[in-house]
## 1
Amino acid sequence: MLDKLVDTGKKATRDGYGAGMHELGKVNPNVVALCADLVASLKIQEFIDENPERFIQSGISEANMMGMAAGLATGGKIPFPSTFANFATGRVYDQIRQSIAYSEKNVKICASHAGLTLGEDGATHQILEDIGMMRMLPGFTVINPCDYNQTKAATIALAEHVGPAYLRFGRPSWPNFTPADQKFEIGKALMLSEGTDVSIFSTGHMVWQTIEAARALEKEGISCELINIHTIKPLDEAAVLASVAKTGCVVTAEEHNRYGGLGDAIAQVLTSNHPVPQEYVAVNDSFGESGKPAELLPKYGLGIDDVVAAVKKVLKRK
Amino acid sequence: MTDRELKLKSVEYRQKILRYIYHAKAGHTGGSLSCIDILNVLYNQVMNVSPENFDDPGRDRYVQSKGHSVEALYVVLADLGFFPEEDLLTLCRYQSPYIGHPTKKVRGMEQNTGGLGHGLAICSGNALAAKKDKLPLRVFTVLGDGEMAEGSNWEAMMLAAHYKLDNLCAILDYNKQQITGANADVIGLEPIRQKVEAFGWVVREVDGNDVCALADTLQCLPFEAGKPSFVIAHTVKGKGVSFMEGVLKWHHGVPSPEQYEQAMKELEEARQKLLEEVVEA
């Protein structure tokens, strides 16, 4: 199955969001887009051009944007407030917690430029804590798609979903390998490649890193089961446990701090149900810096080699 | 520093901003060019801060709230001798401390900034602490016009007036544009003067690209005892390069080789003209 995972041409996940919004603009009149002065970065210009009356520019006032989104949802709209991931989460956490999560508002927070791969802007903008923060909010759905096609499909699926949600995506061009016509099922893990020696659960940009690592490991006779956890919450526990029953060990991979993200979410399921050795591929509790994704990912432990090393380490612990 | 020397510094700083942004192939060109005259006057004429006194608790403080225009601050700090200017050849590169927004890893920086709407609250805290410690220092920040939409700025403004922080001066780099377009089209901030005055600050307006006017204004701080000072510095985004002035795409555009050559030629002509004036004088 590994050889079927082919990059059909690099595209940014944020462009997938823009394409999803463009589609929603045509099919769902309740969808409203909001943005805090980052329209071009979020790729929603087509939505705005075709639906100017359904776009609200908040300017650089993210807290205000989240409050307005909560208010719009009360009136039956489906607001999609969007900005960079650091401003969409940490900056406005209390607004999200009180006005959206606690108030059970049907708001879809859409966040680009998450993680190290935003590159040159450096640490202030490279949020590596957002999955943890959003996962902790009661009732919140947290989604981190892996490529353009999946981000587009997830965006469209969110409009049908009822309840607060966080959609996390990124800035760089990245391999696009999932089907263009996929139906995105929130909360349903995606089997990418079956294997027997180790279960690799990955999310976001790191999915491609694990595919490349699995190809390298296959040459050494190591069989990896690759599972794409696009929805970190609610987690597809059945899929996790079924895979682990077969392989007996786990590697998790995410573009996020090792605390609070996908790795911890998987570990919670394992410790309560089926404890097995687990290794984390994640940022080791630090902030980022400027640089290109290809420079930053290996430096912060998110390279293909880091996945390979984690697999070998966990196999020894089996 | 004489008026002519200040003018010369501004042109040279603009050349450096473009040189390092061009080399890095990254950076916020338009905003750095709009605010550089303000930073020039602050660091060379107004503030008591230098590499020699940077560890002195009594030094004046500067926090750049519009952190994305960090290139302007880098070239001024290098010029003052905080670090070798050639270090800026690593701007925005992997493993460089000279990242895309202000960081205290760089000597001369007081505060990490980047996300907008943070600087004024931090400066208010600095100014309040100085009052409590009876230190005569002053605290300065440069705000972007787009970031005036951040509610946190207005919260800080209430606080600064309440605590009578007349050792605090905020300068608005009012180039009238932000990343998406004109302020007036995104979220209008007018009438900004009346709003700030209503929050209890004393406001002066000045041509923010005129170093002489800026120096005159900033030399009579505080504008009124017991009140914080606010300068509306009317600037032009991309100032100093004909094809960048007021053109939105230069918010963080990087010039092509041809554009870079043209920009540097214009600035060099401006520099030579100033040098001739100095000789004549």
## 2
Amino acid sequence: MGVSGMPLQTRARSIGRTALERSSVRGAMGIVHSIFPSAVNILTRDNHLISVVSSRVGRGPINLVADLPDRAPMSSMGLEEGDDVWSGGAALVVPDRVVISTEGASVYQPERSFGHALLPASGIENNLTAMLRYARVRGRSAVAEYVMRRLPDTPPGRPEQSGRPAPSSSGGGLSTEMQVDSFAGAALPRVSDFLLAVQERSYPRIRMSASNLIGLGPGLTPSCDDILAGFMASLRFAEENRIIAGDHITRVIEEIASCVPNRTTILSEEYLMHAAVGEANEPVVSLLQRILTAGPAEVRSATRRLLSVGASSGTEIALGILLGLRIALGRRIALGVAA
Amino acid sequence: MASRVVVMKGTYRDSITVMKISNELSAASGIRSAAAVMATGLNKRLLGDLGFRAIEVESAGPNDLVVALEAQDENALGDALEMLDRLLSARKTMLSGPAGPRTLDSALGMLPDANLAVISVPGQFAKREALRALREGLHVFLFSSNVPAADELELKRIAKDSGLLLMGPDCGTAMLNGVVLGFGNVVRRGPVGIVSASGTGSQQVSVLVHGAGLGISHVIGTGGSDLSEQIGGLMMIEGLKLLEDDEGTKVIVIISKPPGPPTAEKLLVVARQCRKPVVVNFLGRSIESTADSGVREVATLEDAAKTACALVRGETPRVEPFSAKKEDVLAIVEREASSLTASQKYVRGLFSGGTLCLETMVVMTPLIGGIYSNTALGGSHTLGDANVSREHTCVDLGSEEFTAGRLHPMMDYTLRKMRILREAKDPETAVILADIVLGIGSNPDPAAELVPTVAEAKGLAQRGGRSLPIVASAIGTPDDPQDLTRQRKELENAGVVVMESNAQAARIAALIATRGAAAPRVFGSAAHG
């Protein structure tokens, strides 16, 4: 609450397209669902989320970036879980506590098609190698690290014929024998199976293997969900830039998306369904943009930002992006394990 | 053995909190395994495979938090459950926001978008920190000094290979996208880009460009030893290429003390290939004719600024010895020199900027002869003791011998004030000359520091039956925190001759010391400067 019992009045710097649609109703809109240091989630009456976030989190499809002082925690807004949230058309209101004006906020709709700025395949591959090397050293996810160990720095120039594991890289900061936690051990064969199904264009198997991944792993957005979110978003970017044919991509993503409802947390469901149409939070989009158009130094910088997302989510999304774009470039990925 | 599954309905905790709970419980005494996850179908099945089966788990949904614990006995399990309560109740503390960063990692955690690290640690640790920053994909502004040349070379090669800038070591000034790093002036953005091995040289050119109504795109510092033969101008070349590709930069200025011939030639080759006009100021190097290319070599920092501005405006570069009319300058010389005694023969220059000291010697030597210095142009005029002036003397008070264990003289005027008083007592001192560098990072009010000392110095001379001209250049802008206009006015009111550039201050000091005898060389020579 603001001083003297007055509600805190602030404004939105940016609002995602979905958040704008969901907040455009008038009247009772939902409740405060959860409060994190950098985000307050609002659950709408039709069970969707709008995230009121600090600028540190950045823009995203369901995000409303509030104009709060730098580093001010969301708890400083004085909200509590269960508080009613109303919409006044151009403002979100928690009675007696907060008024967030959305008037004049920029709408987040990032560019996905890069035209002449698009790198050739070799440039994109170099960037993926830079990202992989960086993520191996700086990553924070047991699940992602366990998969990344089995990926070569640079994939073979043409599809491999055998299903043997790719040689492990000598680079990176992983211990020689990383202790495999239960989730990582469970995830690896399932990810492997999923990738084989995608590469073999076996759509029923894609659906089955995706359903074996969604909701698996620690975190508010389970690890395997994050991998799939990065995977789908990267495929949509590849499709948009004509790196890979749209019909196959559309089918793959439809199969994955059909498995999402009711299998995972509400927040993860949001991210997955947005990734399915190529929408994601700024750190994800920024990394994709740089991989497709910039140089390794900028890719490393964007990777760093993505890896800082959540406890392990950023690393897992980065892995999903790597897998998606390598497949889009026609590189065969074989993790060498069976489900 | 004892196990327990705790389901918290509708409990949302951010991933970092959940991971912290999971890790701390796993590490607790007597705990064999622990997991805190959202109760999605697959996670529940996995927990079942691990032996955690409970009715509560089966009824939990994807938006419920489930914590599974396996302990060696009931006591350990009880302790762990208490710990779980504490961890969950600690949430409010965790929501209170992050503390300030103490390491590069924590800084990056708080500012993941950062693409540049400013490093100012003792020299022996600088390489390690700079390497870490480069590996993070960060450009580096390395303020630290005393970094071995071999380390500098290694860092710069890594930076170059990574497409990054390593500005330094011993880099005091840069301005990127209008943001000043280290020392710098408040100038408008504009079409002139600077890549420089000299901090005060960059400042001088920046403020003169600003004063001419134009602005600065970027200032890329390279560190003073970048143009040594060992480093070979690695970052100077990278900076030049960056400015060449920068849309906002129309003309590029290169500033450095004179490099060795191989490095100078290498740089000039790159500069000649540049698609944009390049103005080169290698202070003290004899100027070669480069009229057939886009490169113009000039003698002074002021000439560099004026030439760059003319090129931006499509005009023919024209440099003059003074901004004021010749007769007005000579009137000042007459006023200041008229009451000098016969014993007052020498200029005593006291500088905070090494490059400004060097430029002064470059300008004054042809006018008054050899000048002694702790950074002498020729070995024969090296001061035996930098604390004791000899004949014409210019001292760089920012050199290591003066700054060890104390603030740089751009910030701390103590040494300079003491030296002014000492020179004032010397009956051979004809003119005291000083640079006054304003801007971000510099002393907040140089006039307030100097005015009482100026009065005391003039008083000392007067008691010795002499007058004491004091000349200063003021390197700054009216928008600097110290306000150039106010500084200038207060110094002039105290009897200081304030010039708008270091080169002009050097010329007028030479004119005063020679009682105007150097005028033909000043007004005749500058036409082709």
## 3
Amino acid sequence: MKKLKDFFAAHLREAHQLKTPEGLATGLAALDRFLLWGGLPKGALSLFCGALGSGRTSLWLEAAARVIANGRWVAWVNGAVPLAPLSLYHKGVQLDRFVSIEKPEEPKQIFWLLQELMASSLFELIGCELDGYRLREHQARKLQAQARAAHVALVFLSQQPVPRGSLASVFSLILNFEEKRLLVERALHRPTPHSFPRSIHYARFTLHTGDRIILGSDLAGRTQAEPSPHGAQPLPPPSSAADSRI
Amino acid sequence: MNSAVRLARDLGFSAQCAVADTPAGAQVFAAARPGTILPPGEERDRLKELSLPLLFHLEGLLAWERIAAIESIVTFFMMLGCKTIGDLSRFTVEALQERWGETGALLWKRIHAKDRQVISPLLPTEPLEDYVHLDFPISLASLLLHQIQKSMAFLFARLQGRRLIAQRLSLILHCEYSQAQHKIDIEPATPNRDRSLFLTLIENRLHNLDLENPIRDFEIQIVPSPEKSQQLDFFEPRESDREKAEILISLLSQANLKPGFYRIEPSLLPEKAWCLSTFHERDRANDLLEPSHVEFFRGKDNDATPAVAPTPHYGAHVMRAPRPTRILSVPQPLSFEELERLKILSRNPIERLESGWWAPGGATKRDYYFAVSPEGQCLWIFQDPSTEEYFLHGYFD
């Protein structure tokens, strides 16, 4: 026994020395409990995949509202369909620490822009609507390194299908907002895929359509592990505001 | 005083300094005995000791109109055997005025320390602009930036002296081989006096310029803005979050991006009910907002900042109405086929927006509904009752 203790002594840690990686709570109790970070991972890249109107922005805004309430700054890079600040107002978000940037005319500027935002060491959470922009792997890896150095949670919102292969490995967290469930496609140190059933709650309406949640506060305790179906594809995104169609 | 002289010398001026009752007296002593500090009321007596040719320096803020008149005065009195300014003080003002007119009367006043010229910071004499002719034409951005840096050093020192901040900086570069010129306007998100920020912004613009036709001379002009007094906390860090944000927004604006902070606008139409504003615009808007309005919209809990406080045109109930997280800038008409695919979630509209005929753009009437697409997208659509046409306006994303 003593030999065993001596052998493992260099590798053993006291309980208080173990520290989980930092994250930003999203307010969805079930999701936060499931993820190792207790929310969106800080110092890492996350990806929310889904069509417009599938609830991606609401989840990001929930996390942003908490960051701002803690006195930190948040940045948002718009896509073709801009963020509406009145929805932030309802959430009680203080807009004086919320920097928003219109969609860059040149898609290539997004990469430069994100680097500048992280280099400013001002923001704790950055959201970026990619629209049709395809992030290349070397760009993603560079952003990953910079996010780690700046300790920023960088979240991409994409209307493209979930990436596969080496590009997916750059993201610490990938959420897929499907019609009837929220699917955790990738989360470090957690068994994935993992899904949460959804229903719709908004304003005074409770819509029992069996579809999904916009602001899902009732996810708690209703989780189940399911295989990931990849057959269903979301509708193609609007290439610009003028071309937006459902 | 020594610091002021040192600063002036650093900027390339040969400066001397003295303190006296009047500007004219201070100038004479700065020329004759640099560093002199005269006790109040002693200027008149101490002037008497100085030699007569020093009258040329007895000017202060207002120079002699005709230097030839002073030359004739000095020559005349030296011929009479006078050697010091004190010898002139025996003559009456009438006698000097009779011979040399207004110049004689002014001379008497200055000798007796009675020409109290007003020194007012409200009347600056130096312009906030500079023109530099280069000894040799420059086609390298880094060399040009070095020359610009020198000019900016004393222009920003003038700004600091007048407690002003720079709202805009205009730089005109004149080319060597033609009449061509490049104009660069630098306008940071918020007026400030951060010279390094302006230099960075200029540097970024210079790198995008084609300097094949080298630059021979350039002009810099600064449009100033009054400084806003700010009480800093003792423990407040030198570079605050706000300064970081200002620098970032300036950099992004220069790259033709549109960064800013959301500000609620007094418009009934949801797509026009906000705009992106910079710190400067936001502060200005808050200054214009009456205190009673701010108090009304902040409420008792003081939970809304002035930046998001709507103007009284917008009722509080409208502010609380459900709004999607993403709104189209221009509502998109829905075809019959597209509408058929949607599931509208209520028979009656959840909200009606209606403006009068007097509103800009004419009367508007919209009945809003929630809808779900077959793919599960939650949508915000409205019907125009006049045409019965449906439009997609937002996504509950």
## 4
Amino acid sequence: MNNRLINWFKFASPQSFYPLAGKMLPWFVVLTVAFGLPALWLGFFVAPTDAVQGEGYRIIFIHVATSWMSMFVYCVMAFWAAIGITYNTRLSGMLTAALAPTGALFAFLSLWTGALWGKPMWGTWWVWDARLTSELILFFLYLGYIALTAALDDPRRADRAGGILALVGVVNVPVIYFSVKWWNTLHQGASVSLTKSPTMAHTMLWGMLLMALCLWMYTIAIALYRVRAIILERERHTTWVADLPEVKA
Amino acid sequence: MSALLAIVRRDLLLAARRKSEVLTALFFFMIVVSLFPLGIGPEADMLRKIAPGILWVAALLSAMLSLNRMFAADHQDGTLEQMALSPTPLALLVGGKVLAHWLVSGLPLVFLAPVLGIQFDLSARALGVLMISLLLGTPLLSLIGAIGAALTLGVRGGGVLLSLLVLPLYVPALIFGAGAVEADISGLGASGHLALLGAQLALALFFAPWAATAALRIALE
């Protein structure tokens, strides 16, 4: 018998993770709302109007949070992919697959809100800035992962091939970021500076942090929801799935 | 080491027997490069400016055209399984296949590029830098491409999927490869770009055969 507090490997089995995910899901939904409402309230009502940018800057609250999350989710995916390849656990691959659409969504939203913000602020929808370009490539990496796993019919092969792709991608993300950054400085100089932002009001910072936490909790909630669906789909031939009350009903 | 050489010799022999496949990729490179002046216009100043980027993008695309075939034939006739069972480490054999792919589809580009560069009115010095950047960069394309080729082995619609997987990973090679030539033209000196390209090559040389091997083993299961 093992004397650790929790035997983590117990939850590596889809059978025991499915009910656990079901129990955790409502809590993360509650946390999403609990962080999201004050974030929106701070962002829309409390944060002062920016002296230069007017009201339009308020898109920052969603834009910054989605950008952070799009990068973070890719790292989490790579983490689960590494676990999956090392321990050969089935659940890790399912979690990686469950996170990918959310990550791609965040990358897309980050680009989209960035364009909406860029038009009134810089007068253009798109600049070939280092951050925008590397975010775009990150979006392509997500699409590549989703396309690869969708093209492979055998789910186990899809998980493991996708895992290798996620790991190769995560090694490349810093290389891509710095190469784009140096390429950018060589080409266009400092026509648009994103880094020299004016000192931010505390309420703005809090709004962004709360929104990031809200999206983080949302990611966990939606990934748990999606992983439950994936488990049901892949384990539909087993007796424990057939015995589930929600399946019987 | 002799196993690696044997693989290289075998793949080169196979390529020599199917010349059209190799030549198609090279002609593709030449045609794509020649299309750009037709689309953009013949002003020498403009052409000189865009030449490095166009030559490099065309090199990426033509290297990608032949990636599909890196493992496909061996996978179909079962050779790949025998390689996986052989006492020689599979990563070494994969390295041999990558080397052969580069010799067939990367190295010719290095020698074709300066000829096409003349069409774009590049100076002799810039052509030299272009050759060096391609010499360092095309093996990188073969190495990264091998991972993609192994991952998409036996997948329906593998060709299009391969481009989606591999092209984003080619971005750093493109930036520093084309950047080296541009930096040389603008008088900044190309050594920094070339050093970074070389560093990427060293990294890929170490990691890519290993990742491609892991992907192959998944495909062979």
